[in-house]
Amino acid sequence: MQLNAGRIEISIPYEVAVALLLGVILLALIVFRLGQSSSPADQKLADSQAETPPAARQLIPPATELTQMPDTAEEQIAAALAERIEQPEPTGDNRVVIQTYQLRPHLVPVQQYFARFGIETEIRKIGDWYYLLTKDRYENPERPGTDGYAAKQKIIELGAAYKAPLGYETFGEKPFHDAYGKRFEE
Q: pLDDT tens-digit profile of 123-161?
C-alpha cells in the first residue's frame, strides 16, 4: 500500500484477490439463503410444492365434512339460479377453466360446490399448477351465443355465491369471475 500523488494505491497478489472475491460471494450466498429460510413467503412456496403441512391439516376440515356443511342463504340463491338456467348439451372441444391454484386441496371444496349445482369438474395438474376445469366440452366460451359462453356465465354467477370453508382459499371478492375457455388436447 502506498500514497502516490494524493492517491492511495493498493497492490495484492492475484491469489489473495481471487480468495477475497470468492469469500465475498460465499458470504452473499449465505446471507441470501438465511433470508430465504426466515421469510414467510418461503413457507408459502414450500407449502405449494409439498403436501399440506400437519399444522395446516388441523385447520382444514376433511372433504367429508365439507359435503355435510349446511347451505347458506347465498348457496340457496345460487341453487335457485342453477335451476333457472338450462344447461345446454355440450358439443365443442373447449373446457371452462374455473380456477387455477398451486395447492390441490384448496380446489376440492370448489369442485364439491359446483357438483352440487350439476357442474361436473376435474382437477388436473399442469406444470406446477392445478387446474379446476369442467368435464364437459363446449363451443368457444369466449363467443356469446355458444354453449360454452352460457356455461361460463353460469359458472361466474354460481361462483359469486361461493363461500370458502374455514382454512381454504377464498379466491378473492369475486370468485371465479375470471373463468375462461381453454382447448385441451386429449
A: 999 899 999 999 988 888 888 988 989 999 999 998 888
Output the CA–CA distances (angstroms, integers) from residue 46 to 1, 33, 86, 105, 124, in the order listed. 49, 14, 43, 15, 20
Helices (H) and strands (E) in the chain, counts: 7, 6
Cell of 182: 381453454
* Grid coordinates given for 140: 368457444
DSSP 97: E
**Coil, helix or strand at residue 28:** helix
Whether the full predicted model's pTM is greater than 0.85, yes or no, is no
Rounded Cα–Cα distance for residues 69 and 98 (Å): 22
Element (H, E) at 147: helix 147-159
